[in-house]
Write a structure and sequence with these properties.
By secondary structure, this protein is an alpha+beta fold. The chain has 13 helices and 40 strands. It has 3 domains: 263 residues, Beta-galactosidase, Chain A, domain 5 (Distorted Sandwich), CATH 2.70.98; 309 residues, Aldolase class I (TIM Barrel); 77 residues, Sandwich (Immunoglobulin-like). It comes from Sphaerochaeta pleomorpha (strain ATCC BAA-1885 / DSM 22778 / Grapes).
């Protein structure tokens, strides 16, 4: 038995190389229910065998151990019982209150390549504090996902794949890549009183996969990070560090750990933004000319569209489908549509909005190239695309149809192809495309699909050394775009679609995404970790159906209103109920600008709910009935936002913890109220 023991952690691996104990001494809880595998590796041969699994089980190793360091050396590894000249060293280090784990791999096998390694220093886990029903995973998918009782959950339902495509007869997996669908490179298995923080504490932005593997027969979890070394013959790599840190309290403690790591290592340093970007309440998002080129609006309609938006507190128009060939065609040939009124009327529309004190955002795609574009046919487009493991370009296909059926129903989606952020040519095109918008006087450009996808790129002409490093330079490229756009005017801004921390630090506004079922939605996770990011609510303003819930949730979490009326084809005249309520909420938000717009989202801290009365009768404080979140200004003032989710009026009594002051709040049914300290 090999033991590491510190002030708060006791960790053991047995003579077979399996994890047998991960004890948090502060609480006395041992997370390991039954001994678990330490690592798994995926190899590829030169022929048809491209996914050969090898694990630490039944491998021979030597070990050196003291109180703080354990090193397991596998001089060679057995593949189907046959030793192969691939050496693996697993380093486990106890430092302060955390366990740090990393690998060193050397491949001297001429026939096999090392594609992937998953180390799980927390393996054989059933529960954090003894009752798995109290546990949840805080998972950084988009803004955040919560998965309750993960040891007894079918994790495959969250994967985005059919069951036929994975080995679910052995285990079901929760996994996704960063920087991409995963907005951050940490997650937390927690209960109300305790949790385990798992994070990649590397300094690079290469693609990794946060990974939770559930044994479907034993209902046990393995928690860790998949890394992709792509080691051929004669190559060696030392991986970056994965950290496991137990903590008291729930997931908030993990969020604070991750933010501290990101800020202290320089991986998170939010760029400065113009004041109007923080005071931004939302936009009206319009597709002027769709893919089929039957216009929804022309540039002559810009004044009317803006005036409607302004009447309910929205002072920004987001212009899409302004291109000659319509939305989602012939990108990145960005030429203003003459059918919509041409450059002159686009300029006049923007000037009108400016005369009213409003702002205009124009759309660009960060990721898509049309094979029929001039950029692809006659320019460098072919050299910019991602090439997958099969040497093919990767399609991203959508068909936006009009009144007909023949294009949408009887044809596959119209494809475009993904550009690689590691392409210097593509970065030059993104800089030039921004200029193509800014010359018309707009106030900012949004890079669509800005956070997706983290596909490996096998094109050796780009700036990445191996496929998993295709996104290594993407944050720096966004930094360059930010500087370029800001240099064009002090009040101009850069925006992107998707929340990904290392990219968002260079954005003035982020077009958020969180299309999750309500029981899994966990917006708090990203908002609490990086509260200074200004984000939209993404597609919560489409029509009058369920408008109060959409409005109230947006307001509660401090998101800005993305008004996509009838999928960006309608106007505020089409949604009179939403329009009237939106006006009320924007007036409240502007009245509390110092906390709700310029302040910091602090989730549930700084206050305590004492009593809840519904129509005069006492009820328990239940998030299904009442949600409350707090915001803090730079001067320390606290504002609490309360959302009554019931059909009964409520009277709330709460206490501000810092001052001890009590306050009473009345909230109408299905409404929002605010209370300041």
């Amino acid at each position: 038995m090999y033991t590491l023991e510190g002030r708060n952690i006791l960790y053991r691996i047995n003579e077979k190389g399996n994890v047998t104990s991960f004890l948090y001494k502060k609480t006395g809880n041992d997370y390991v229910k039954s001994e678990g595998r330490l690592w798994k590796m995926i190899l590829a041969g030169k022929g048809r065998e491209v996914e050969i699994p090898v694990s630490s089980i039944d491998q021979e190793f030597t070990a050196s151990c003291n109180d703080k360091n354990l090193t397991l050396v596998y001089g060679s590894i057995k593949v189907r019982g046959i030793p192969r000249p691939i050496s693996v060293i697993i380093h486990i280090q106890l430092e302060n209150d955390s366990l740090k784990v990393w690998s060193s791999i050397e491949n001297n096998d001429e026939e096999l390549s090392v594609m992937e390694i998953f180390i799980s220093a927390a393996s054989g886990v059933r529960s954090i504090a003894g009752n798995s029903a109290d546990d949840a995973l805080a998972w950084p998918y988009l803004m955040g996902m919560k998965i309750k009782n993960p040891a007894f959950s079918d994790l495959s339902v969250y994967s985005g794949f059919r069951k036929y495509e994975r080995h679910d007869q052995f285990h079901t997996d929760l996994d996704s890549t960063y920087p991409s669908r995963l907005s951050m490179k940490w997650f937390d298995l927690y209960c109300p009183t305790e949790g385990l923080y798992i994070a990649s504490h590397g300094l690079t932005a290469n693609t990794i996969c946060m990974h939770v593997e559930r044994d479907v027969k034993a209902n046990l979890l393995s928690l860790g990070v998949c890394r992709y070394p792509f080691l051929g013959y004669g190559e060696r790599q030392e991986s970056e560090v994965t950290v496991y840190q137990p903590h008291e309290g729930d997931w908030h403690a993990g969020a604070r750990m991750y933010r501290k790591f990101m800020t202290s290592t320089g991986q998170w340093k939010k760029d400065e933004s113009p004041s109007w970007a923080r005071d931004f309440t939302g936009w009206l998002r319009i597709i002027f000319q769709p893919q089929h080129c039957e216009p929804n609006f022309t540039f002559h309609d810009i004044p009317r569209l803006y005036d409607q938006a302004e009447s309910c507190g929205i002072k920004t128009l987001f212009i899409m489908g302004w291109e000659q060939e319509g939305f989602a065609r012939q990108w990145p040939d960005y030429v203003v549509s003459s059918d919509l009124g041409g450059e002159d009327y686009l300029r006049k529309g923007i000037e009108y909005i400016h005369s009213k004190g409003g702002k205009v955002i124009m759309f660009l795609s960060y990721s898509l190239i049309d094979h029929k574009s001039d950029f692809y046919i006659n320019g460098p487009g072919k050299t910019c695309t991602i090439k997958n493991a099969w040497g093919e370009e990767i399609p991203f296909a959508e068909t936006y149809c009009g009144e007909g059926t023949y294009r949408k129903i009887t044809n596959p989606p119209m494809p475009m192809y993904l550009a690689c952020p590691g392409s210097d040519e593509w970065q030059r095109k993104m800089l030039a495309s921004a200029d193509a918008c800014l010359k018309f006087g707009c106030d900012g450009v949004l890079y669509d699909l800005g956070g997706l996808p983290a596909y490996f790129c096998f094109d050796k002409h780009h700036d990445h050394r191996i496929p998993s490093e295709a996104y290594e330079s993407k944050a720096d490229r966004y930094r360059e775009l930010h500087a370029h756009i800001h240099d064009s005017g002090p009040d101009r801004i850069i925006l992107m679609e998707h929340c990904v921390d290392i990219f968002n630090q260079h954005m003035d506004v982020v077009h958020g995404t969180n299309h999750l079922k309500s029981e899994n939605e966990f917006i708090e996770l990203y908002r609490y970790t990086f509260p200074e990011v200004v984000m939209t609510n993404r597609e919560s303003g489409e029509d009058d159906s369920d408008y109060r819930n959409n409005c109230n949730k947006t307001f509660l979490y401090g998101l800005r209103f993305d008004m996509t009326i009838f999928r960006c084809c309608g106007t505020f005249d089409d949604i009179p109920l939403y329009r009237a309520y939106l006006k009320q909420l924007n007036e409240i938000r502007l009245a509390h600008r110092d906390t709700l717009l310029d302040g910091c989202f602090v989730d549930e801290f700084g206050f305590e709910i004492n009593d809840v009365m519904a129509d005069g009768a006492p009820v328990s404080y239940d998030e299904g009935k009442l949600k409350a979140k707090s915001y803090m200004s730079t001067s320390g003032k606290l504002t609490v936002v309360l959302w009554n989710r019931t059909d009964l009026a409520m009277d709330i009594s709460l206490t501000f913890i810092g001052s001890g002051c009590r306050a009473s709040v009345h909230i109408s049914a299905q409404s929002i109220a605010v209370c300041e300290n």
